[in-house]
Prior knowledge:
Number of domains: 2
Number of strands: 16
Shape: globular
CATH superfamily of the largest domain: Trypsin-like serine proteases
Helix content: 10-25%
Largest sheet: 6 strands, antiparallel, barrel
CATH class of the largest domain: Mainly Beta
Strand order of the largest sheet: 2-3-4-9-8-7
Number of helices: 5
Order of helices and strands: HHEEEEEEEEHEHEEEEEEEH
Amino acid sequence: MGRTERVARAARRARWPLALLLTVQLAACGPGDPAADRPTARPAPAGGAGDRIGALFLGDVNGPRMCTASVVTSPGHSLLVTAAHCVQTAERGRYDHLVFAPGYRDGRAPYGVWPVTSITVDQRWSLAEDPEYDVAFLTVGEVRGLRIEDRVGANPLGTGLGTGLPVSVTGYPNDSGVPVTCSGRTGPQGPTQERFECSGYTVGTSGSPWLTEDGRVVGVIGGYQQGGDTDAVSYSIAFDGRVTELYRRATG
């Protein structure tokens, strides 16, 4: 089902009477309910290393907003990481004419708009959408003679670090003009997936990077349930040898 289904759910809930909504929310978050203590994402501050994160669009910044992506360290200084389901499906193939706007905010792209020139996904995703391989690396072209890493900087990948890591997760909900962010700890979701609990990660936040305190990317929203069936619990494949190998292919 994945996060796309939340759009229809939100539309249905918007038609409920306010009193009924309040009753349902109070019942759902009663005493002893873990959801009552779950944090909620807040608007992310502008500037700094946070501007290495941006929104993916189809066509240009006036086109459909697809997902979130971020700049990662690479030899070519031109690499992004996101979720594979953001850029390719078994039914439609790869999306053409994607562009990336780092630091996008309130309709403005302060660092320009960078065209995606190549997409690297695992064959097990491209053929069968295996959620164990829901990660992608994107190469972007130069803008005004500059490579994107030279323009905004980049975060290194962190692989094989396990769970229980303190991270911040920043992404672009489609219904917001600004990115949101939240901090917490990663947890296991079976042996090959991880989870992060914070409310507010709605449609558009797939691909959001999970950043450690020292700035390493150790996950992206995706994987199980294509990132999560609710806005409160997000998932990522574990960044292990699978991601290391895909990165090697993308930069080789």
